[in-house]
Design brief:
about 140 residues, alpha+beta, 6-stranded mixed beta sheet, about 20% helix
């Protein structure tokens, strides 16, 4: 019988929605696997970009990318600023990096054994002018026994 692996994206979205340092910056309604057509910022998405299962085991080792977005304008200034809000996007990325260190066997849709941060980078969004940071990490996950 083939091994069934949990959806790493759904598992990580469920986990992030319960992690206070993340939800203090980005409410749980702003965490998903893709941006809505008209997002309210800050916003956090996650997607699998690589990795794979450990052959012969029920353990998956996906490489995921978290995308942390900030708004493009600050309406609290006069006149409104058109510069991206990199502060909130970066703070969200830093909260995720700290979270990776805190994960020790948590269960949501899958059993997360741990996370390893590989990189954090600032990505230009010249067409939208959104602030955007990406955090790449390996996740060790398996189905809940």
């Amino acid at each position: 019988m083939a091994t069934e692996y949990p959806s790493v994206e759904r598992t990580l979205v469920a986990w992030a929605k319960t992690y206070t340092p993340v939800t203090a910056i980005c409410t749980s309604t702003r965490i998903s696997t893709r941006l809505p057509e008209e997002p309210v910022f800050p916003y956090l998405t996650v997607k699998r970009i690589g990795g794979g299962p450990i052959v012969g085991t029920p353990v998956d080792n996906p490489l995921v990318q978290w995308d942390c977005y900030g708004q493009r304008t600050n309406r609290n200034t006069t006149p409104p600023s058109l510069s991206p809000d990199y502060t909130n996007a970066e703070n969200l990325a830093l909260a995720l990096m700290g979270a990776a260190e805190d994960v020790t066997e948590v269960e949501h849709e899958g059993h997360i054994y741990g996370m390893q941060v590989l990189s954090m980078r600032r990505l230009p969004e010249e067409d939208t002018m959104w602030a955007h940071y990406a955090v790449d990490m390996f996740v060790t996950i398996r189905e809940i026994p």
